[in-house]
Specification:
Rossmann fold; single chain; 21% strand; globular; seven-stranded mixed sheet; disordered N terminus; 283 residues
C-alpha cells in the first residue's frame, strides 16, 4: 500500500512515478496480513461491488478485496509509481484492473464506486482534504471511503528502554522533516482522519483501531519486516546525525542480528503498532 500524489511539489514524502519501494510494502503486508484482513472484513463487502484501492502499492489488498466481491464485482488498483503498478499487475486476478495515475487526477467516472479503500496513502499527500474530496466524488450514494493508517499512536519496539525508543522515533521524524523539507505540522496532519472525512461532507463516520502486537519468538514474516524494513531500511546509518554517539551505538547493537543483544530474539521482545480505519459514507 503506497501513496499516490500529485507532481513532486504536492507529494509529501517524495513519491514520483519513478520511485520504487515495493519490497518494503510487501514486507509490511505479509507482516500485518491478519490485522489488515480483519479491517477489510469489518467493511461487510458484498458480491458485485465496485471498489477502488487508492494507493494499491504492491497490490496485496487487491486479492483480499476481490475475494469479498466475487464473482461479479470489480476491483481497480491505482498507484503513482510505475514499479508498484507492474508488481500489482503481476499478482492481480484477471477481474482486477490496475492503473498508473495521480490521486488528484483520477481517470475514473464519478459516482461509480461502492467503496474506496486507501490504506497508508493519505499520509503521503500534502492536502489530505483535497485527496478525500476527489475520492468521495467517485462514490455512488451510500458508497464509502475507508481510510486506513498505521501508527497513529507511537509504536513500541524496545519495551525495556522507553528512552531509546523515544529518541529513535524523534530522530526518524527529524530525518524525514529535513529530507523532504517538512514542518512538524505536515507529519501530524494525518492524525485527523475523522475530521478529514467530515470536511469532505461524508456522513456516518466511524473509526476503529486494531492493535498489531507481536512477542518473541517471531514468525519469519514478522522478523523480516521488522529487521529489513525498520531496523535496516528506516533506521540504520541515516539516523547517526540525529542521535548522540552512545545512543546510536546502543540502537545499532539492538538491530544487529549477529549480536547477542539482537532485539528480535530477546525473550522480552514485545512489539506494538496500531492500524486505524476511519470510514465515511457519501450522501
Amino acid at each position: 500500500m503506497s501513496a499516490v500524489a500529485g507532481p513532486v511539489p504536492t507529494a509529501l514524502l517524495g513519491d514520483t512515478p519513478e520511485r520504487d519501494y515495493a519490497s518494503k510494502l510487501r514486507l509490511f503486508n505479509a507482516f500485518a496480513r491478519p490485522e489488515l484482513r480483519r479491517a477489510v472484513a469489518s467493511l461487510g463487502l458484498q458480491p458485485g461491488m465496485r471498489i477502488l484501492d487508492a494507493g494499491c502499492g504492491a497490490g496485496c489488498a487487491l486479492e483480499w478485496l476481490s475475494e469479498a466481491i466475487e464473482p461479479d464485482g470489480l476491483v481497480v488498483g491505482l498507484d503513482l509509481a510505475a514499479a508498484h503498478v507492474r508488481t500489482a499487475r503481476r499478482r492481480a486476478s484477471s477481474q482486477t484492473l490496475v492503473l498508473q495515475a495521480d490521486l488528484l487526477r483520477l481517470p475514473l467516472r464519478g459516482r461509480s464506486l461502492d467503496l474506496v479503500w486507501a490504506a497508508n496513502t493519505i499520509n503521503h499527500v500534502r492536502d489530505p482534504g483535497a485527496a478525500v474530496r476527489a475520492l468521495s466524488a467517485l462514490l455512488r450514494p451510500g458508497g464509502r471511503v475507508a481510510l486506513g493508517q498505521s501508527s497513529l499512536l507511537p509504536d513500541m519496539y524496545f519495551a525495556w528502554d522507553a528512552r531509546l525508543e523515544r529518541l529513535t522515533s524523534e530522530a526518524v521524524r527529524r530525518y524525514y522533516r529535513e529530507r523532504y523539507r517538512l514542518r512538524e505540522q505536515d507529519l501530524a496532519g494525518v492524525r485527523a482522519l475523522v475530521g478529514t472525512l467530515r470536511q469532505a461532507q461524508l456522513r456516518h463516520v466511524t473509526v476503529q483501531t486494531i492493535n498489531i502486537e507481536r512477542i518473541s519468538p517471531l514468525s519469519p514474516a514478522d522478523e523480516a519486516y521488522l529487521l529489513e524494513a525498520i531496523f535496516a531500511g528506516t533506521w540504520g546509518e541515516r539516523l547517526r546525525p540525529y542521535l548522540a554517539p552512545e545512543d546510536f551505538d546502543a540502537l545499532q547493537a539492538l538491530c544487529d542480528p549477529s549480536g547477542r543483544n539482537f532485539a528480535l530474539r530477546r525473550a522480552d521482545f514485545h512489539f506494538l503498532q496500531t492500524f486505524t480505519l476511519a470510514v465515511g459514507e457519501a450522501p
